[in-house]
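Supplementary Methods, section 5.1.

A reviewer requested that the exact input to the structure prediction be made available. We therefore reproduce it here, unchanged from the version used in the analyses.
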Amino acid sequence: MVGTRTTMAAALLVLAACNESGSGDGADDDACQGPKCDAVDDPSAEDTSAGTDGGSDSGTDGTTGGEGSVEPACYDRRSEAFNPNRLSFTPTALRWSCADIDSTPANERGQEYCEYFAIVSVPPTPAYPDPIPEVLGRNLGPEPEDGQTPVQLQLDADEIAALENSPDSIVGACVFTSWNADIDAPCGEECAAGEVLGVPIEPEVFRMKFDPNTNEAAITLLDDCANWLPPEGDASNPDDPLHDPFLRACELNTEINETQHRKSDNVICGAAVRMAECGCAVEGSSLPEALAPATDLGFRLGGWSGPSELPPGCRYENVVEDAQTLVVCDLTAAEVLQNASELKAWCRESYADDVVVHIGIEPSAVTCTPNPEDAYADDCPTHPWVLEP
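The structure derived from this sequence is encoded token-by-token as follows.
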């Protein structure tokens, strides 16, 4: 049993589908934005300060076209996605790190289809000869308001001395999980799961909790971005930022989901929008089902150098063999002692940027037939999902 020595984000918006006549089914006509509907106005134009992370100098004047038509957060996410050493768009995968953006409140960390927390098992002391592992900063429910397990590690004098006497010993771990909150382990109680520092690998502890971190949410996001009409740039203005595929998709994501601050949502939406604009289909499956199969526990975790290459000090621990949805990174006694006030923050600082979520794509299974009548179909590359700056 896990014990103690001392006593998101909002769900993704599911929007009504448009019918053949171009009006929303059961919704106001202005809310219909599907391929057979007219595009709606950008809701952010009324309050351009909403939903931004403050990290961009881009203006928002609420006008149609031009710099003011794109949320400032989109420029920040674009800069991250096209970091030459950490490209989000590759021929074989869509990628982003587990690290939340810097402005994410402490109680909302874990919004990138990857949640993380710390586990510590302090060396034996006279008061605690049989150490009880502490789980620190783990989300407890689908909303941030549901809280977390204790964030601060409480240590008495004997425990501090024990950590100081063995500063290089491994006594803790940063745990990164991409196990979807709505996916059960297919082997049920027969899973031969291991443990991390004495904590059994079971759904209650190691599965994600936030409502957006589900297979259903990923499917909905992919479906929305592939089927709803993104905003178009002004054809007479070659400098209109909406001609940029990433910004165009980010603005669509802003309109339908208001999650322009998330790296994951904008990478996923960017690829889905571009594949739709270029008439791409996946052999034997729909695009959402191909990229987010319900048969997987979640998106795979890896590193920037490869889908199975983890940062030094990290390893896979999975309830299902080869799932790659649980990554455990070592914490030394010195690290635990120095960061006992909030080890979850230390996990983010030390490992989260290099633990990478991968959505695998098999290029040979994708066939694209651009429609010449579509505004952005005349420059479709070989791999349309590989957005370029």
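The first strand starts at residue 89 and ends at 90. These observations are discussed further in the main text.
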